[in-house]
Amino acid sequence: MQKRIFYCVFGVCALLLVLANVFLFFSIKSFFTKQIISDMKKQAQTFLSVQNYDENSSKTNEFNTQNRFTLIDEKGVVLFDNFASNLENHLDRTEIKNTLKNGESFKIRYSQTLKQNLIYYAKAYKKANQTYIIRISAPQKKLTELLFSLATFFACEMVLLLVVCFFIAKALAKWILRPIKNMNLNEPHKKDAYAELHGIIKTIKTQNKTIKKAYKKLLQKQQESLLLAQNIKDGFMLLNAKGRVVLANNNLEQFLRLNNATSLSSLENSAFAQIATQMLDEFKTQKLSQNKSIQMPLNDDECEIIFSPIFVGDKFKGLMILMQNLSEEKRAQNLRKEFSANVTHELKTPLTTILASTEMIKNDLVKNADMPKFIDRIYNESKRLLQMIDEILRLSFFDENKDDLLQKQNINLKKLTLNVISRLNAVAGKQGIKFHCDLEDLELFGVYELIENLIYNLCDNAIKYNKPNGFVKISLKKQNGAIKLSIKDSGIGIKKEFHSRIFERFFCVDKSRSKQLGGTGLGLSIVKHACFYHNARLSLQSEFGVGSEFCVVFEKENSQEKA
């Protein structure tokens, strides 16, 4: 209602404003037109005062003005024109006819001589018993230019007044409806409500009490149903006897992609809709009261669907559907089993080595000369074990998705990369591997620890799986608003059949080499999760025996240049 009042008031104000401006415009036009005619009359008088009305007069030729002056006799012969010569007879001109009839005339028309619209003023006078006509014309564009000069004023004035009308209409709408909005249905006479509404208010008051009681009961039951349905882990749907969707929880909506579907016929998943419609008809026609359960594939997943009929007495009222995704549970179980088996195996290997070495030392089975070798073995395996545990914990952290514990900040990627290189210089120097850096001074908004692990693992792998006296090229550049990090090595490379698996947990192309180098098979998996967390694209280009290049592209929303 407030919108209607607003539109009505604003529309009336705007209409009156437009009409006022149209009236003002034409009034100004009329005023300026009269002013031009007045000026022409004065010029005509001035012209007559300096002329002796002789075609060959020198004074006629000396008269100079921006307007066009034409001297015409009563037969229409042009005696003088300051803009043209050898003109045709003008007796048929409208302003000449009217002047011979009325003594003077005013006309706006197109001039064939000057090829433009002109404002004409003509006045007749007598000289030596002869009637002459002095005609003055000015380009209409002068009037047009004058009016256009006021266009900016009119536009600004219209915009300003429309804004004022907007706020006035808004204020008036609120003011008119304020008594209605402030009405107290329980005590209508204690407020400044319109007297015409008191009868209606009393009726509403009586009906409102009944409605409130029924609404409270209905709302309570609805909230209980919604709370129960949404807390169900599996998909839940409630249909009435006609197949319309009464209630569906979020799990089922996401799984079936309901998209605000209100009935079985409007569901996108035709397979489920067909089965549900069949079950609905069976329960309705055969009066079956027992639940039915079926398993069927939906969206590439195996699901178990339980159909439970709802009867009130002998009358069928609806159908309750419960859906459980078996594939998700199976995949989760398989992943847990696989991960547990891998963790057990990978942790068992260094522990076995440590235990065997310590038992040999404990039982005095190691010679003094061999003791440093055994100690180094125990140290290296312990270090590898700690590294593996640390990386397993880090991956578990990713799996739990504890985003709230990760705080983002502005990271100087150049400084961070140089810091990682300084930590790895000693390891690279042992193999004669050199770093070649092309780093721009760029900043990234992200989690410092994750980005550090990402760069460290990629550089560490480039060193471990490199050739003696090889190189590691690190590039950091701005590319189309995004940040591109490239780490390229001259190492052993990766065969194409392994490209899709190297980011899997505990996967190693050569387990013996990885164990020798202290690899856990988790580094690239951590890199993958760090990229995923920062919405970055991770790609690999590798040729066996030549080398590998890992590229990480951080999108625009995460990247920013250093000020």
Describe what you observe in this structure.
- It is built from 14 helices and 18 strands.
- With 563 residues, the protein is of the alpha+beta class.
- The protein has three domains: 2-149, 2-Layer Sandwich (Beta-Lactamase), CATH 3.30.450.20; 234-400, PAS domain (Beta-Lactamase), CATH 3.30.450; 402-561, Heat Shock Protein 90 (2-Layer Sandwich), CATH 3.30.565.
- The strands form four sheets. A five-stranded antiparallel β-sheet has the order 2-1-5-4-3, sandwiched between helices.
- Helix 1 (2-50) runs antiparallel to helix 5 (151-181).
- It is flat.
- The protein starts with a helix and ends with a strand.
Which features would summarize this protein structure in a list?
five-stranded antiparallel β-sheet; 563 residues; flat; Beta-Lactamase; Heat Shock Protein 90; 3 domains; alpha+beta
At a glance:
The chain is α+β, with helices and mostly antiparallel strands and 563 residues long.
Helix and strand arrangement:
Layout (H helix, E strand, L loop, with lengths): L1 H49 L7 H5 L5 E6 L4 E4 L12 H9 L1 E8 L4 E12 L2 E10 H10 L1 H31 L16 H33 L4 E6 L4 E4 L1 H7 L13 H17 L5 E7 L2 E12 L2 E11 H37 L8 H30 L8 E4 H18 L3 E6 L2 E5 L1 H17 L6 E9 L2 E8 L21 H7 L5 H11 L3 E7 L3 E8 L4 E3 L2
Parallel strand pairs: 12-14
Antiparallel strand pairs: 1-2, 1-5, 3-4, 4-5, 6-7, 6-10, 8-9, 9-10, 11-13, 13-18, 14-15, 15-17, 16-17
Total count of strands:
18
Low-confidence stretches: 53-64
> In percent, how much strand structure appears in the residues?
15-25%
Tell me the name of the CATH homologous superfamily of the largest domain. PAS domain
The CATH architecture term of the largest domain is 2-Layer Sandwich
Query: Which class do the helix and strand fractions yield?
Result: alpha+beta
